[in-house]
Amino acid sequence: MDNPLHHFELHPLIHLELMGVDLSINKAIIAMWIGIAIVFGCFRLVIANGVTLVPGKLQSIAEMFMEFLRDMVDEFIGEDGKKYFTFIATLFFFILSCNLIGLVPGSYTITSQIAVTGAFAVMIFLMTLVIGFAKHGLHFLSILVPPGIPKVMVPVIIPIEIISMLARPISLSVRLFANMTAGHTVLAVLFGLGMTSPLWVSWMPMGFTVVVYGLELAIACIQAYIFTILTCVYIGDVVKLH
Amino acid sequence: MKDDSGFRQGMGLAFKVGTELTVATLVGALMGYALDSFFNARPWFLALGLILGGAAGCLNVYRAAQNMIIENDNDDEPDAKD
After folding, report:
1. What residue spans define the domains of chain A?
2. What one-character DSSP code corresponds to residue A55?
3. pTM of the entire structure?
4. Which residues in chain B have Cβ-Cβ distances shorter than 8 Å to A147?
5. Coil, strand, or helix at residue B75?
6. Residues of B numbered 3-22 whose beta carbons fall under 8 angstroms of chain A's beta carbons: which are they?
7. Helix (H, G, I), strand (E, B) or coil at B3
């Protein structure tokens, strides 16, 4: 029987090396490109059909997504949120399409690589720091002391706040990575069971594969939603500063 | 999309809170471990880091839950954050 983690392995398809840097093209990169192409293509299709005052089917779906994202940005970042809307929307659609592409048999889930989610989370963390210092100057450091706590507690609360700040990018990246990896491993194990067992039992793991596949569809959407909503919360915390 | 928003929020909260606690504790413990090997004070910073990390985890969970509460009834009490 195949190793259930086999489909997470990456092998270069096209060897490329540029000035000592390994730029080989593998499945993950192709999946990423396809994800970007699908998002781009969908929105191009909406525009190509003509944007009208009374929206058609495709335009309604696009507007629904946009409204949902705009509500999220408005709620967690506030009136300053317009500046970050494009970033948040790009992040959401990219992660959503990558999660969903991973569910097509034979393709690859790039969000199941901690290198990808970690890069996202660390960049978001650094971005919040830059926004905070640019907006509030050195006063930004007061984010480490929540308002209304007694003076005695300050030396205790500062390390706690530092740890909770540092835990944010890690929990952000680990959550997405772990959920995608776990889901796909479960699918692989169930499918492996179904393939190896005799026909009179194999209907059971196969049936479960279908059920878990449906659950994975929901998780792909929920994880994309959580990742973006937490990005909004983190940016909002820094912008509002208490 | 509107009628399943309760389900979506619940799933979101569940996924969010689960990792938050673990990761904060781990980060605290790791920082304590690093300080230990830096200052050569084997168990002390690790213990302190574990406790502070656990506290940070609880704080993160508390904040996540509070965000959700605000999200649920932001009509009557928009400023219930502090």
Report:
1. 6-240
2. -
3. 0.84
4. 82
5. coil
6. 8, 11-12, 15-16, 19-20, 22
7. coil
